[in-house]
Specification:
19% of the residues lie in helices and 18% in strands. The strands form 3 sheets. A 6-stranded mixed beta sheet has the order 1-5-4-9-3-10. Helix 2 packs across helix 4. It starts with 18 loop residues before the first strand and ends with a helix.
């Protein structure tokens, strides 16, 4: 049985078939700004470990610093993403796409700075030490296709990695990310 294709509600900015886990680390996009870029990231918390609720807690601002020796260095950060695709393909949404998530930091794409203003940020649970899962590619592609249906300026050429908009500062999604595979999945009829 095929997984249901998520829809993206253009008014609420919420994907269907996702667990909503609201983050306070967001704000309004500049007036009149439309989504025209999608940024792929990776995250694992603690670094190199998968599973658990630490990613959700981090984006929600509720990460307990004492839970792991690494966490005191990041617990006070105010960052988020629009969504995260976990190793098994589950998707949690933290920020509606109608809002500006704080995922890109200092960034530039096609001569425009402040990529958070006009982008969607999607995290993949993983790191640079190994490949992402089949379920993650399928789920990510489904989110991308749903976003492309709502935001016509979002094209395959405007799906980038964090490293593309913050070169020298960021390396994600990393060398294991299979761009041709994602783009092949995104190109099915819409």
């Amino acid at each position: 049985m095929a997984l249901p294709l998520p829809a993206l509600d253009p008014l609420s900015g919420r994907w269907s078939h996702t667990l909503q886990w609201p983050s306070p680390h967001c704000d309004a996009r500049p007036e009149g700004e439309m989504v025209s870029l999608l940024v792929v990231h990776h995250i694992s918390l603690p670094p190199g470990e998968y599973g658990g609720a630490y990613i959700d807690q981090f984006f929600a601002g509720t990460l307990e610093p004492a839970a792991h020796p690494y966490f005191p260095s990041i617990a006070a950060l105010k960052v988020s993403a629009h969504a995260c695709v976990f190793r098994d393909g589950r998707v949690h949404q933290y920020v509606p796409t109608t809002q500006r998530a704080w995922h890109a930091g200092e960034s530039c794409f096609d001569g425009r700075e402040r990529c958070n203003d006009f982008s969607i940020g999607i995290e993949l649970e993983g790191d640079e030490q190994g490949p992402f899962t089949d379920a993650q590619y399928v789920a990510l592609a489904r989110l991308v296709v749903a976003a492309m249906r709502v935001y016509p300026a979002l094209t395959a050429e405007r799906i980038v990695g964090h490293s593309d908009i913050a070169p020298g500062r960021k390396t994600d999604p990393g060398p294991w990310f299979d761009w041709p595979r994602l783009l092949a999945l995104v190109e099915f009829p819409r």
